[in-house]
C-alpha cells in the first residue's frame, strides 16, 4: 500500500477519535498524528521500514510498541488527562491497520507479520492494488495509477468515518447539554 491508502485510513480513524470539545490544535494535531501512526511501519528509520520489513511489519513487534505507547500515556499524568482511551485505542488501530492494508497487494505474497515466530503470511490479495514502482519517478504514470486506485478505494472509508465521527460528537454535545441543563 502506498502512503495514500495508509493516510486515508489513518484520517478515517482520526475522524472517529476526535473528541467533541477540543480546540484547533486537536483538530489539526490528531489527524496528523493518526496519519503518522498509520504509516509508521514504513518510516525510513535504520533497521526499520523497508530496510527491515520483517521487523517493522511484525504483529508482535508492533503490538509490543503499541503496548509501550499505552504504558507511557498511562505513566505520564498530564497525558492521561488529555488523551482519552477511545483515542488511544483508535490510534493503535490506525497503526495496526498498516499490516492489514499491506496484505491487500495483488502480488499474492502477503505480509510476513508473524516474524520471528513463524514465516506464515497474511495474504488478502485484491487484484487492483498494485505496488509502487520505486525504480520510477513518484509521479510516473504507474505510480499515479497506484495512488489513484487507493484514493478511490479509501476515500469512501474516510467519508463514512467523517459521518460517524460527526454523529458521535453531536451525540456527545447533546448528552453534555442534557446533563448540564
Structure commentary:
The chain is globular and about 60 Å long. It has helices at residues 3-17, 24-39, 53-56, 59-75, 77-82, 85-102, 141-180. It has 181 residues and is mainly α. The longest helix has 40 residues, at 141-180. Helix 1 packs across helix 2 and helix 1 packs antiparallel against helix 6.
SS content category: mainly alpha
Sequence stretches where pLDDT stays below 50 over 5 or more residues: none
Report the portion of residues in β strands: under 5%
- Residues in helices, as a percent range: 55-70%
Radius of gyration: 18 Å
Q: Main sheet?
A: none
- Helix count? 7
Note the overall shape: globular
Question: Order of helices and strands, N to C?
Answer: HHHHHHH
Distance between the termini: 48 Å
* Number of extended strands: 0
Please tell me the overall pLDDT.
Answer: 92
